[in-house]
């Protein structure tokens, strides 16, 4: 038996329980708000109630006199040391970018913006005193909503002269990746099918469960910031770049972080103010937001109007796609800001073979909370648009939605495939994923039931929604980011430290906040290095330990950070081999590495990696031409994105009398390449699905006409509960399409569920009532909107399109029937 | 200031507190029981759920003075963690991957323990209704529901 000599059962693919869980299920956690330092002071923010106003005076005297208040500071009390909030991705050279002070002294541009900070010995005393700060404002007209902003009648920032920040364009005809979309549309108008639609991506709030919190300790040689952030490394860089403190004097720690979903991919005014106050007072400070503050002032997501034209021939083979986005940046351009909708530019064509494509994105400034990444960031919006359009095309042609997709998708023999947006999809198998999903879902039986209910005129109608999504993830090849004018690269760094006792410490620049990196990365190292899973410790989230990194977002940690880790491990093995050959007095060529042990071919001589680590530590006997260390680093820059895909099928029941919708079944078959830990993957998919479903059915951040966020608490911003959701049917293809651009063959999964599920749900709702003459329901598909759509159809007519609503489309175009004006009233286009 | 005396995770404690102080603030700020967390300010999220005389409460919805003379159990007192032991519901959340970021988890576990105390053999529907007052943003609830059902199964075995 040689089994014990061999590598233990492969870790990759095993449903390991998570290493992280022990402390989390016992409350032995270190959230930022749990940190208490000697002499620590607490901050409370004074926020503007107005969406747009000049600050005429800030009277802090009463607040200062309040018990245990140490200081009350407003924007005018700070100079350049306060720094600015940065935009790292100016999408065009002429982008209009408003100056974003963490705490402006003269003018506020959204309700919730910070105008003063109170510093007290306790959080309660700070909040009490914040009530006493008397700010005088001169209210200015506020611009709310994309369509209003585009008119440029009221300006979010009068000094800029316009609300239009940037126009970003991609045209396949101009760059040579495809033909002219206008010609395709013209042809289709006379001899094919043209689908024209306007879809609304409502504004969402990431709503991570842990409110943001920041602690700054200015004592000691380095100034330390603990923050509930996804991006400790970017945060450190931005603090150095904007506040005049050398990067080497800054230590940023992301301790346990309670979810992010893009919402903590930000460099925030609150962090900058805490930094400045701690430096000013030379005392540790803490600021933890309330949930209401979080919903109001942490960045929001999505918020686009999508104007779409799809051209196809009579058989439903697509010939062109024209996309115009108007995207609401809010009051400022946040760290990624306008880059989020631009990320969608490459994904509207999705899995389909469009010969021509044009994409435009107009970003606008409004007097609302600034927007930025939210799970999927650009790709959910694109996927929603194309997957809704494909269902509309199927309806127009009169075929099953799966069939229309099959007529147009890239077949598995056609990979690698260069798309009309210029990306090279390396692998995929849409046929296999669809076949598996279809079978697991019971597609044919549900279609039969749908028909039966329809024939019977059942009050509760059944709809089936399809979403055959792909996405680009693993952000990102640095040169690609450079070509898009992003301010940083997309590489990741890893280190492997072989400890004297034979244990292994790995350091990653990825910064987990719930994903389970400690577990998955341990599995990777255990397999590749041949050491026990339990002997691997994963360190991250502290810039003094993980000194290099680009953090966690864009489904990048495994596919970029994991690959860096693989390469660092391989370097360790190379070094160890050299030492092993020396100690075994053998030639390196005769050594075989297996199961964590070098053996000399044809002998029983061998040495374990742990013994080599000890030998390197002792350094009593090692080759002249090596340093006494097995440790290694690697920095990996991906050569391509990766392209997970899947087929999602959703069955929704719609009560035609009340408009109530109920999810009956949800099946997804995702092809994400090689799976490291199926338990963690399933968890990522489940959570992603519910966030996408929540966009379809429940969530919407609403500002009133004055710019006040009316969905400013969990009473009004409808996060789904366990009672609103169902258990999901999650399957994978039998033979995954292994990614060819990383060693492990993995593809990202963090955002897949969110990207795929929203159109599947809305397609199902529309499918249930399409026979009533309905072809759209605006998100979220509340019972009221569904009911109004049904009532509208019963009243016998389509909503009239006002003549000015659709400048994008040819006059009198018949099949364009929805428009935002009507959607705002009843959310339905019939 | 009002003097309160109560038992928290098996230990008798006594403090002078402001009458307005919430139980969750008392637990976190005075006792350092930071395993119990605050996720909202409208009693929607349930992250702060603890047991008060054996029944689950959202500790942001109870004043510290209301806990006077009573017994509080937090996630930190649910099992003898010093020995590495886990309460069966804790073990079940781990086994079924019922947590990701873990922020809602203490509240979820405390609520699940109470739910199973009242109804040791719930249906999926009953679990979903019983856990409705606790929000999670990571798991989509799928594995939380599974964890609770798994714990119920384990108790029967």
TrEMBL record, chain A:
InterPro entries: Ald_Oxase/Xan_DH_a/b, Ald_Oxase/Xan_DH_a/b_sf, Ald_Oxase/xanthine_DH-like, AldOxase/xan_DH_MoCoBD1, AldOxase/xan_DH_MoCoBD2, AldOxase/xan_DH_Mopterin-bd_sf. It comes from the Bacteria. Residues 26-141 form the Aldehyde oxidase/xanthine dehydrogenase a/b hammerhead domain. Keywords: Membrane, Molybdenum, Oxidoreductase, Transmembrane, Transmembrane helix. The chain crosses the membrane at residues 329-352. The keyword ATP-binding does not apply. Residues 8-21 have a biased composition (Basic and acidic residues). Residues 1-21, 794-830 are annotated as: Disordered. Gene3D superfamilies: Aldehyde oxidase/xanthine dehydrogenase, a/b hammerhead (3.90.1170.50), Aldehyde oxidase/xanthine dehydrogenase, molybdopterin binding domain (3.30.365.10). GO terms for molecular function: iron ion binding; oxidoreductase activity. This is Xanthine dehydrogenase family protein molybdopterin-binding subunit.
TrEMBL record, chain B:
It comes from Nocardioides zhouii. The lineage of its organism: Bacteria, Bacillati, Actinomycetota, Actinomycetes, Propionibacteriales. Keywords: 2Fe-2S, Iron, Iron-sulfur, Metal-binding, Oxidoreductase. Gene3D superfamilies: 3.10.20.30, [2Fe-2S]-binding domain (1.10.150.120). The keyword Iron-sulfur applies. InterPro entries: 2Fe-2S-bd (IPR002888), 2Fe-2S-bd_dom_sf (IPR036884), 2Fe-2S_ferredoxin-like_sf (IPR036010), 2Fe-2S_ferredoxin-type (IPR001041), Beta-grasp_dom_sf (IPR012675), Diverse_Oxidoreductases (IPR051452). Pfam families: Fer2, Fer2_2. Pathway: Alkaloid degradation; nicotine degradation. Transmembrane segments: none annotated. Residues 2-78 form the 2Fe-2S ferredoxin-type domain. It comes from the Bacteria. GO terms for molecular function: 2 iron, 2 sulfur cluster binding; metal ion binding; oxidoreductase activity. This is (2Fe-2S)-binding protein.
């Amino acid at each position: 038996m040689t089994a014990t000599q061999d590598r233990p059962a492969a870790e990759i693919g095993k449903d390991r329980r998570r290493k992280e869980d022990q402390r989390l299920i016992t409350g032995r956690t270190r959230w930022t708000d749990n940190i208490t330092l000697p002499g620590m002071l607490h901050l409370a923010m004074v926020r503007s109630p107005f969406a747009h106003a000049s600050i005429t005076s800030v009277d802090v005297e009463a607040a200062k006199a309040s018990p245990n208040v140490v200081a009350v500071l407003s924007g005018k009390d700070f100079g350049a040391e306060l720094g600015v909030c940065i935009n790292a991705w100016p999408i065009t050279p002429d982008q209009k970018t408003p100056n974003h002070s963490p705490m402006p002294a003269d003018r506020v541009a959204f309700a919730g913006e910070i105008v003063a900070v109170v510093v007290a010995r306790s959080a309660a005393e700070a909040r009490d005193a914040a009530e006493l700060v008397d700010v005088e404002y001169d209210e200015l007209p506020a611009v709310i909503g994309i369509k209003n902003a585009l008119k440029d009648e009221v300006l979010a920032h009068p000094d800029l002269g316009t609300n239009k920040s940037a126009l970003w364009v991609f045209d396949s005809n101009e760059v040579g990746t495809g033909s002219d979309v206008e010609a395709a549309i013209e042809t289709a108008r006379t001899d094919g099918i043209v689908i024209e639609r306007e879809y609304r991506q409502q504004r969402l709030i990431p709503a991570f469960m842990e409110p943001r919190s920041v602690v700054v300790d200015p004592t000691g040689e380095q100034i330390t910031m603990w923050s509930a952030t996804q991006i400790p490394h970017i945060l450190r860089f931005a603090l150095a770049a904007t506040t005049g403190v050398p990067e080497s004097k800054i230590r940023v720690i992301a301790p346990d972080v309670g979810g992010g979903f893009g919402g903590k991919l930000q460099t925030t005014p609150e962090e900058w103010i805490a930094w400045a106050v701690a430096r000013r007072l030379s005392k540790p400070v803490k600021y933890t937001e309330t949930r209401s503050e979080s919903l109001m002032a942490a960045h929001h997501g999505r918020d686009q109007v999508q104007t779409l034209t799809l051209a196809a021939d009579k058989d439903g083979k697509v010939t062109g796609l024209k996309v115009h986005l108007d995207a609401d940046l809010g009051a400022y351009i946040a760290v990624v800001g306008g880059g989020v909708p631009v990320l969608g530019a490459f994904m509207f064509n999705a899995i389909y073979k469009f010969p021509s494509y044009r994409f435009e994105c107009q970003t606008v400034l409004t007097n609302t909370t600034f927007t930025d990444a939210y799970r999927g960031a650009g790709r959910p919006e694109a996927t929603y648009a194309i997957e809704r359009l494909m269902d509309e095309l199927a309806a127009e042609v009169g075929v099953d939605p799966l069939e229309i997709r099959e007529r147009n998708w890239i077949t598995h023999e056609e990979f690698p495939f260069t798309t009309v947006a210029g990306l090279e999809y390396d692998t995929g198998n849409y046929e296999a994923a669809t076949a598996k999903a279809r079978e697991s879902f019971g597609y044919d039986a549900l279609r039969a039931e749908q028909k039966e209910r329809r024939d019977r005129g059942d009050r509760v109608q059944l709809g089936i929604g399809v979403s055959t999504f792909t996405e680009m993830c693993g952000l990102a090849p640095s040169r690609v980011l450079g070509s898009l004018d992003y301010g940083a690269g997309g590489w990741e760094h890893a280190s492997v430290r072989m400890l004297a006792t034979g244990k292994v410490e790995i350091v990653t620049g990825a910064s987990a906040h719930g994903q389970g990196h400690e577990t998955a990365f341990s599995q990777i190292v255990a397999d590749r290095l041949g050491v026990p899973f339990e002997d691997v410790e994963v360190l991250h989230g502290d810039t003094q330990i993980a000194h290099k990194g680009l953090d966690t977002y864009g489904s990048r940690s495994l596919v970029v950070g994991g690959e860096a880790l693989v390469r660092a491990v391989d370097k360790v093995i190379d070094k160890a081999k050299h030492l092993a050959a020396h100690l075994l007095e053998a030639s390196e060529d005769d050594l075989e590495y297996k199961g964590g042990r070098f053996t000399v071919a044809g002998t029983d001589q061998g040495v374990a990696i742990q013994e080599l680590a000890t030998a390197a530590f002792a350094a009593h006997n090692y080759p002249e031409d090596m340093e006494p260390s097995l440790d290694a680093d690697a920095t990996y820059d991906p050569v391509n994105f990766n392209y997970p895909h899947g087929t999602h099928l959703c069955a929704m029941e719609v009560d035609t009398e009340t408009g109530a919708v109920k999810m009956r079944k949800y099946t997804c078959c995702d092809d994400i390449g090689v799976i490291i830990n199926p338990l963690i993957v399933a968890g990522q998919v489940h959570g992603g699905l519910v966030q996408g479903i929540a966009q379809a059915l429940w969530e919407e951040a609403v500002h009133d006409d004055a710019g006040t966020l009316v969905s400013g608490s969990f009473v009004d911003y409808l996060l789904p509960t366990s009672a609103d959701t169902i258990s999901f049917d999650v399957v994978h293809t039998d033979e995954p399409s292994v990614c060819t651009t990383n060693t492990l063959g993995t593809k990202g999964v963090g955002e897949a569920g969110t990207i795929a599920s929203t159109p599947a749900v809305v397609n199902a709702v529309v499918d249930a009532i399409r026979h009533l003459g309905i072809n759209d329901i605006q998100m979220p598909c509340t019972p009221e909107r569904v009911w109004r759509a049904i009532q509208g159809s019963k009243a016998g007519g389509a909503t009239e399109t006002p003549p000015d609503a659709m400048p994008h489309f040819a006059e009198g175009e018949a099949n364009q029937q929805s428009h935002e004006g009507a959607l705002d009233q009843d959310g339905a286009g019939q | 200031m009002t003097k309160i005396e109560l038992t928290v995770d098996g230990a008798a404690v006594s403090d002078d507190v402001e009458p307005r102080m919430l139980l969750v603030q008392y637990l976190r700020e005075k006792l350092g029981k930071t395993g119990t967390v605050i996720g909202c300010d409208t009693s929607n999220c349930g992250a702060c759920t603890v047991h008060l005389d054996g029944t689950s409460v959202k500790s942001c919805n109870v004043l510290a003075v209301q806990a006077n003379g009573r017994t509080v159990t937090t996630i930190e007192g649910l099992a003898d963690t010093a020995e590495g032991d886990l309460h069966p519901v804790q073990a079940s959340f781990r086994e079924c991957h019922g947590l990701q970021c873990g922020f809602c988890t203490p509240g979820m576990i405390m609520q699940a323990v109470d739910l199973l105390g009242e109804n040791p053999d719930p249906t999926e529907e009953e679990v979903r209704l019983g856990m409705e007052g606790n929000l999670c943003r990571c798991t989509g609830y799928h594995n939380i529901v599974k964890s609770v059902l798994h714990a119920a199964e384990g108790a029967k075995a």
